[in-house]
Design brief:
single chain; alpha/beta; 5 helices; 5 strands; globular
Length: about 160
């Protein structure tokens, strides 16, 4: 069963994510990974126009200037011979109601985020731990530690 994802709705309800280009590209990569794992078609739809010169992949669509992704998602379902075979990922109540009326299933964004797995963006933000072997590798930078207060000796 193929999926169509309301990309801006998903990003807007995801703590720590924004609707900017970097998070849209990251989401497109994560969705592509899920598509490969599940071996099913996934269409990711965003509001507006794509930034010039940036490729998001074959099944990543932008609704175009002055048009919402909701309209494009509904258009995609209307073109299908059997929209009942589709799952729409959104928390947008109005869009979900219209998609249900057409026969599509709805998957809440939280359930879909869990399906994607851990937030892969966090992997690149990890700071390496300090070495306990005593070697000093200047290429590895670590966060500086806040010094602990020095106890004052009483006389």
């Amino acid at each position: 069963m193929p999926r169509v994802i309301d990309g801006d709705n998903l990003l807007g309800t995801w703590p720590g994510r924004r609707r900017g280009d970097a998070d849209k590209r990251a989401l497109a990569r994560e969705v592509d990974g899920l598509r490969r794992r599940e071996q099913r078609r996934v269409v990711l739809v965003f509001d507006g126009s794509p930034p010039p010169g940036v490729s998001y992949g074959a099944d990543v669509l932008f609704s175009g200037p002055g048009r919402k992704a909701d309209a494009l998602i509904l258009e995609l379902l209307r073109r299908e011979s059997d929209p009942r075979g589709w799952t729409v990922v959104t928390n947008d109540r109005s869009l979900a109601d219209q998609c249900r009326f057409m026969g599509a299933r709805i998957e809440p964004v939280r359930a879909f985020r869990e399906r994607l797995g851990p937030d892969t963006r966090l992997k690149s933000r990890k700071v390496p731990a300090r070495s306990t072997t005593g070697s000093s590798n200047s290429a590895v930078r670590t966060r500086s530690r806040v010094p602990l207060p020095v106890p004052v000796k009483s006389a």
